[in-house]
């Protein structure tokens, strides 16, 4: 993983500096919200993937930051609206924005970041890039809606779960990779391979995220352990666990989750059972399949530093602890 | 105004049909919200301006609906978020969406309509169109933020007022006109003239809107009379009225408005005073200046039906009663 680490260490300051400068350019009422969500860290996976694909496909100019950072801001915008609507209290170990800055500021900051991201993507005069970004925004909005709809009527349907994680996470990561390819003027085949890598990586990323929610301590992730369960979110670890349970027990649990009637004791009990059953580990095994699919897409790229780093990034998704 | 009426009667069914079909394509949770806000009427000024400018500059294809309707959906998206944040109860004579469908559905519908609008604009593979739309979205978001910021610290500053109505209304109308020109492959000079027409028309439109709030009965506008005053919004009729009052009276009123402490009786009294002083009429006189500026921009267009209609549309802004 040395190449991956070196690459991130080299490029992250530029990406963070660009993000900070864009946040600084926003209007007073929302600037602090933007600073808060951007400054709270995050792995900058989306901008890095755009950069890596652009360079892997021969792009050698230094003006990649606007489109790369657009993807990060888009992601930040959805976090702001999601956290407000979910009434989340914590984001990346810090108080959620709506609790610090208020409802109006948070909603409008989400709108402004979305608008800014879009404008940054349009700076290149590249119609393909605009189209990809527009579609990415659309798919992310739809994914967000479907996730909330699903949480109002939770089921143990794996197909529905997959559709939701693709919509809310994987499509935007696919978009980041495609944008890198489009910036480099890639062929449709090359762009599709970049997209396929991103889609599979995104699925694996979310599967691991959902596993971490069950098996990683809050001190590591910055999120409360078992948070999904408490918030009534049905994810793969729970689905795998319930598949081995009595049907009646599953229905009862779903009803309690839907009606937000799960007590702290019941939560702790289900959490312990899911952990004992090893469902988080089985979720990681599924993620590993998608990581392999992602890596297979790299064969189309010319060998070089970026291809190596993209391979290591895929492996890192499986081993990350936060 | 015969040409204007005929043009609208001929083109509105196509525009409304396209809007309905796009709303129908949205995900379940937000579809009803989109139907509600789109179906509640509205003058469709933005799509008509896009169409008129495109055709005036020689565009003869029938695929203008996506970009024209994108502007309307963008406008609808901002109404949804604005009404929720303002806690507005009425929109176009109907209950505001958040009261009918709830907070989550309304915020997400706004996000989805914004995303959809953006995607519709990207369908042409025209980078200039994408850039214009992206900038229009950005300017509208900034305008929305500045308006809310201003309402938290209201002043009788005309410059601040003008900046706000340009941001929240006129820039998007400018954008609609520029998009029509860009669709037709206009020269930069032609696009600038279209933009200048739209900017001035948009300013006039908002000035008249603010006058109507003081001098048109609720039965006509579908909004409660004196609503701006009650909501603490400082607009030109009030600024003009206060310029003739004692400074102390103005400061007291502003403080009451900012703290939402204006009683119904005080509201009714100020409303009557503003009406008696003829401030709404003086606001219309200012609007007339911008209407003339807008009409002057039409000289660059070739004579024809669209140029006539654009001239009549500018005049109509002054005479409308809702």
TrEMBL record, chains A, B:
Cofactor entry: Mg(2+)
Signal peptide: none
UniProt KW keywords: Magnesium, Metal-binding, Transferase
One example GO MF annotation: prenyltransferase activity
GO BP field: isoprenoid biosynthetic process
Pfam families: polyprenyl_synt
Family under the similarity heading: Belongs to the FPP/GGPP synthase family.
Name listed for the protein in its UniProt record: Polyprenyl synthetase family protein
Source organism per UniProt: Pseudodesulfovibrio alkaliphilus
